[in-house]
User: What shape does this take?
Amino acid sequence: MFSNIVGQEKIISILRKEAATNSITNSMILYGNNYTGKLTTALEIARVINCQSDKSINCSCPSCIQLKNTEHPSIVLLSRRNHSEELKQLSNIYVKDKNEEIKHKINRLIKLIFLPLKDFIIENVFTETDKNQFSGIYEAINEILEKQAYTSSDLDTILKKINTLYGYYKNFNIPVNSIRNVIDWSYITRNNYKKVIIIDKIDYLEKSSSNILLKRLEEPSPDLYFILIAEKLSKIITTVRSRCRSYYFSDLNEESVNYILRKNYMIENEKYSSLADFFLMENACSTEKIKILTDKIINVLFNNNYTFTDLMLLTETLKEKDVILALMQTLPSEIEYTYKKYQNKNLVKLSDDIIGYITVELKNRIKRVGVFNCSPKNQFESILFSIKEMVMRYV
Assistant: This one.
């Protein structure tokens, strides 16, 4: 068990001991940077918890088979993680040599993408029209998956439809109604398995969602497990953190990164320092590119050498919705971080209250995009120009 987790030996050692002594905690947080194996570990923990045999990685008990096929009735995943780059890489490999193992990985990944879109999870989250669109996308993809082999055109169709699906996600937060739906499910579901709820990006939950989750964490049940995934532990509200056992996932070393790329993606002759470098090398939403953009925006906003014209020219370059949403998510914490460190002497110095007000307003604009279906670009430009106007008053 846990032999599919690479580069996290310390955590795996702990989890193996806990599994062997039936002491896996009912509430846990897996935290660390992206591409460190948190979701893979969460799914493996869910498998081990429900295994009806020896818990080995190759176990073929009914529960393990169901989970490996992403069809387990007691496993719930709340996530808005974008898997399109991973799907794209697997598709490229399959086109070259029609490898059956890669085909299986493509099928499993697609099922994982649709897992957070179960009917009871998205009730009161999307409109009926949206739900019908999801059904149409799934049926079209499933028709391709039933083929003996996929053509290049088939895989292009799948990628386009998956990207269309992701377009319905207005922001990266898990909606409060999804949290509420899953909590209701946890009370009423009855079967022979232990229920496992995996919630991704728990550090981005709205306060109302965190409070709903907290109430359920305060009512533990022996047949219910929460596996919460986060990047930054400090961003999770203290009361939730205090009720969970935390496991830190360190960044993978280069040896682990390239082992994963060889094993899963048949990358033999290239070396990468991180999985992010591999998956996001052409992605405008890569962590590095978003960091460069946020630094540039902060400089234009708070440096009195830049004017409204400079800000207008900068915002005109921001056209992709995913990039704007990523910037809206990242900018509040980056502004707070910059002012705490205050490394840039050219920035206009503002009070903590004003910086707090600015970050709260940015977060409110994110909510408007998700709740009221407002244009991300319009909301983002509006708040940026408001911030610039505020800063100019203090020059």
Remarks:
- Strands lie at 27-32, 75-78, 195-199, 224-230, 245-249.
